[in-house]
Design a protein that fits this description.
Elongation Factor Tu (Ef-tu), domain 3, globular
Amino acid sequence: MGLLDRFRKFDRPAPPEDVTVAAIGWVRNDVAKPRPRGWEKVESHIDLLPEHGGRLRGLDEYSHVLVVFYMDLAADAPEKPESISVEGVETGILATRSQLRPNHLGVAAVPLLGVEGTVLRVRGLDAIDGTPVLDLKPYLPRYDAHPDATIPGE
């Protein structure tokens, strides 16, 4: 892209309404069913498909990774709430970490304990055994950490 290209008008095509993604791997751990808490010490393996091995180059040099995953069991939940009660306060579902969100996506920043071939070892990933992993990204403190962030009630 040349310098002048940056100043040319860009007509963005209409964005898609439906998006298709595919799993790049799966979570492996001893947690068989969803639970609301107690993930801090859970160690998981993320088993990637072999074709993604080369894409891991350099990831082992980071202390933490962002894991994007699909909470597939929630997709069949009969209830699709607009809000839920969190510690006695009615809260919109998008203001929670509940799995009952519109697209059932989970995102977690977790310590990366190691990479061996196409297997990552992580701790604290709040995903049960067999959960599809959609993407991985290195955790970058200058972008991902916000020391001035606030949450309700604290």
